[in-house]
Amino acid sequence: MLSPIPSLSSHPVRLALAQINPTIGDIDGNAALIARFTRQAREQAADLVVFPELALTGYPPKDLLLQEGFVEAASAAAKRLGEEHSKGLTLVFGVPLPLKGDDAGGGGGSASRRLANSLLVYRDGRLIDYYDKRLLPTYDVFDENRYFVPGDRAVVVDVAGVRVGLSICEDLWRGQDVGFAERYFDAADPVDALAAAGAQLIINPSASPFRIGMGAAQRALLRHHAVKRGVHIAAVNQVGGNDELVFDGSACVVGPGGELLAAGPCFEEALTVVDLPLAVSDAGLGVARPALPVLSGGAVDSLLTVATEETLFRALVLGVRDYCRKTGFKTAVKGLSGAIESAGFAVLAAAALGPRSVHGVALPSRYSSAGSQTDAVDLAARLGVHYSTVPIERGVAALEATLEPVFAGRPPDVTEENLQSRLRGTILMALSNKFGHILLTTGNKSEMAVGYATLYGDMNGGLAVISDVPKTLVYRLARWMSGHYQSLGIEGLCSSPIPDASITKPPSAELRPNQTDQDSLPPYDVLDEIIERYVTRRQSPRHILDEMSAPGALVRADAATVKRVVRLIDLAEYKRKQAAVGLKVTTVAFGSGRRVPIAQGYRPEQGL
User: Fold this and answer.
1) Mean pLDDT throughout 556-582?
2) What torsion do the CA atoms of 496, 320, 180, 549 make, to the nearest 10 degrees?
3) Which segments within 495-592 are labelled E, that is strand?
4) CA 126 – CA 539 distance, rounded (Å)
5) pLDDT confidence of 102, banded at 50, 70, 90?
6) Which of 336, 413, 508, 590 is the most buried (most CB within 10 A)?
7) How many C-beta atoms lie closer than 10 Å to residue 325's C-beta?
8) Rounded distance, CA 239 to CA 17, Å?
9) What is the pTM of this model?
């Protein structure tokens, strides 16, 4: 059922939120993307179309901002875009700009100039106003103080008779959604300034990376702002994968009573169009326009209603797909062992790239169980991926014979185990080089935390897809994929993709006889709880022990276990510094969001 055409004398303001997937640095391609979505907004008679933070360059552009010529190219493209594509509506998009008065072409290059993280507002080919982001996040993966100078003014523009306040991402969040609010205790609140300036609608373009479980907190902040100031809040996020970061899109509009008026989908490009109940005078468009469909039951916010496992699946698939697409890879190679990571990983790769673009390789040794090999064959057949076998036994024997003279008198140990992993890594890299596949590596967060991975072996690869997914969540994800195979979007898949044995058998690296992970690691529920507390919450070992040994603790650990796991986490930092880029899906991931020195002498576990 469609709502009636509004009267010509007065109509609500029609807002379009464009969650797009830009490629960092592809200024011309991003400009064309903005122009295409602007045309769609115009076809739907929008008064105002809003694009994400730094949409023209993609986020985060990092040191491209310091490269001579980059900001100039973005500024020129922004001018062309605004002048040529804003006819009949107000166009708002993000771009880095030199501060007014700075030399745009000075002899020192871009690195010598001061820049702002800006929004430009164009209408009918004219620059109406601009806004510079006032709060610059510099924590976790963000480093905006390195590049930008904060703005110092509130900006409210008139759009079809409605007062629209401009803000960018952190201006609204103020670090509250990730626990860094104390950084802004002394800073003026940009939202208060907009409300004081008479804003009826506050727009908030952002580039906020996806994190499991943060959707509810972010939506609650939007409702808080809307109710506190009695205004409409409209947020639009970037979508897509850029290196280790994944962005979910998830545009939404909240009314002054905290009600959800519209919501965009997660993890896909979309144009969300909504009529806001703000009276618009004849200064508006004043022409008939197509009515928007009325949704029975109101707007549905998929960011809050979709299960955690499905959200994680979609985030990882998008991260793999975009990393490959934006770096030029069309096919992938990965080791297949029948283990749960190997199985789940193959499903993610098949969903991201298509089954015929995935090449699974079994690399059995003398310790590989018959069950692991048959599980790998079964998995490949279910998914329809390419499958081949490259036995490593002769190569391992040759390496052992080569090293025998210098190893004489020393019993076999982890060195010989790692030879197997490193030979596998060498073979997989050879296949990557020969055929142009990207090598995807399968280590999970639990393994990466404690160093349960072989440097230059199973850590080889171009993208670590599940390096931020703890082992316990890997199991949950695998079970969800098995039970929802119809929702995975994999062509030809007609049954559960993961063999039951891959989920139920004890995890093992199979590098020595009868090996299991729990020979050298605590149970994964215990390990993951300690990792969550030490890495994500940054609790001290004493705090961890007190809470995990307290009566009623759901997951328990003793002092020896806490002490050992904390030490392993610290010791493995040198491995993580050499690891492939890993997709970030939790609040704190190993990589750019956790900056710990390798050569350091702090030993927090010694106090236990």
Assistant:
1) 95
2) 40
3) 581-582
4) 53
5) low
6) 336
7) 16
8) 12
9) 0.91
Residue type, 297: G
Tokens of residue 466, six digits: 């599940």
What is the CA angle 400-401-405, rounded to 5? 100
Residue 339 in tokens? 């283990």
Determine the Cα–Cα distance for residues 561 and 192; give it in Å rounded to an integer.
49
Q: Please, what is the Cα angle at 271 between 270 and 277, to 5 degrees?
A: 140
Task: Check 144, 169, 244, 584 and give the catalytic one.
Answer: 169
Asked if 605 is an active-site residue, the reply is: no
* Range list of H helices, 336-392: 340-353, 370-383
User: Is 169 among the residues known to form the active site?
Assistant: yes
Residue type, 216: A
Domain borders along the chain are 12-306, 310-513+574-593
- In this structure, what are the phi and psi dihedrals at residue 371, rounded to the nearest 5 degrees? -65, -40
pLDDT confidence tier of residue 120, bands split at 50, 70 and 90? very high
- Nearest partner of 447 among 576, 317, 583, 540, judged by Cα: 576
CB atoms within 10 A of CB 307: 11
What's the one-letter identity of residue 181? Answer: A
Catalytic residue among 53, 244, 309, 529: 53
**Are 131 and 119 within 8 A, CB to CB?**
yes
**Amino acid type, 8:** L
3-state secondary structure of 94: strand
Quickly state the pLDDT bin for 547 (edges 50, 70, 90).
very high
Which pLDDT belongs to residue 165? 97
Do the strands 156-159 and 162-166 form a parallel or antiparallel pair, or are they unpaired?
A: antiparallel
Reported residue count of the chain is: 608
| Residue written as token pair 């998008």 | 318
Q: Which of 255, 269, 268, 256 is nearest to 299 (CA)?
A: 255
What sign does the CA torsion over 571, 572, 577, 583 have?
A: negative
The C-alpha atoms of residue 261 and residue 259 are separated, in whole angstroms, by: 6
34/441 Cα distance (integer angstroms): 34
- Interstrand relation of 11-19 and 48-50 (parallel, antiparallel or unpaired): parallel
- Domain 12-306 of CATH type 3.40.630.30: no
Q: Rounded CA gap, 334 and 509, in Å? A: 16
Predicted local confidence at residue 6, as pLDDT:
36
Mean pLDDT of the chain: 89
- Using H for helix, E for strand and C for coil, what is the string for 243-306? CCEEEEECCEEECCCCCEEEECCECCCEEEEEEEEEEECCCCCCCCCCCCECCCCCCCCHHHHC
* Confidence at residue 303, expressed as pLDDT on a 0 to 100 scale: 83
Tell me, what amino acid is at 556? Answer: R
pLDDT tens figures, 470-494: 999 999 999 999 999 999 999 999 8
Of 72-76, 495-499, 567-571, the least confident: 495-499
What is the Cα–Cα distance from 447 to 340, expressed in whole angstroms? 13
Tokens 């850590």 belong to residue:
459
CA 461 – CA 471 distance, rounded (Å): 20
Q: Give the integer Cα–Cα distance in Å for 111 and 94.
A: 20
Q: Which of 68, 100, 133, 330 is catalytic?
A: 133
Q: Could you tell me which CATH number the domain at 310-513+574-593 has? A: 3.40.50.620
